[in-house]
Amino acid sequence: MKKRSIIVLIIIGLVVILVVVVGASSLRPEGFGPPREKTSSAIPALEDHVRAIPVITTSAVKGTLQDYIHLSGDINAASTVAVYPDVSGTIASISVREGDYVSSGQVVAHVDPSRPGTLYSLSPVDTPVSGTVTKVKTEIGSSVNVTVPLIELGRLDLLEINAYVSERYVNAVLPGQRALITADALGDTILEARVSEISPIVDPISRSMEIVLSFVGGHKGVKAGMLADVTLIIDERHGVIKIPQKALLNRDGAEYVFVLNESAVEKRPVTTGLKVDGAAEVLDGLEAGEIVVLTGTSMLANGSLTDVQSETAGLPARGNLERSDA
Questions:
Q1: Residue 29: CB partners within 8 Å, gap ≥ 6?
Q2: What is the tens place of the pLDDT at every residue in 196-252?
Q3: Where are the chain's structural domains?
Q4: Across the chain, which distance is largest between two alpha carbons, in Å?
């Protein structure tokens, strides 16, 4: 009988314990205990969004790329002739001034060759060629001799530019290279010239080489004596693939870009050439029209998913020195 009572008490105790445990489980506050498994069809889409890296892209473009150097130059008459007297003496008269046009054989001055105790007739000074007086180098009463020029003449219908190239670039300058010419007096006007002469030596003092540029297509508004700003194109490449330098990445000396294929990117090695004005020539590894990542590359790896925020227009196909209204 006692054994039976003990068994009954044990069963009742187990039931009470079970009821307490089940009740406590049903009353457990949210956040306590092991997390409950949740299922939602939105989770995969959310994870995909988290993995997608925001980027800005641009297109590879086929066009022209130009390398150049900036120079300052003096605009001078293309042909200059000095006028000398035939005798030594004193300047008795000058009949021209700077800017006057003279014809060949015209008398422009007289020299008095007289000496103390002797009188001579005035000796006329005439011009060997026609042209414009660019400089009067003497004045009445001055002593002159046959080695001193009195006047300089120039053909102002033919102007040229004298400029000096730093020793660093002397081997990059070639006859016929194109240059863009501007001057303060010309406003926004851009003229064109080409290299017509190159000095065979480098000045040992200035470490520079003189070049001469001849205008192409006229020089309206230009006057001798002006200072010219010269943009000399030392390399001009047409039909090249080019992208912004910002899209290029470099690791261990190897350059690469991230190319967009649908929503993922491909890490692709490239070979580059000329780099100037923020643009880079791509010699190998990229075709015109392919989309490359411009910003947002720091978090990318091969195969990364991307979220394209915007696409920047590709570089202009025209040369980097050419104006949009040209």
A1: none
A2: 999 999 999 999 999 999 999 888 899 988 999 999 999 999 999 999 999 999 988
A3: 53-65+238-312, 69-76+157-237, 81-154
A4: 176
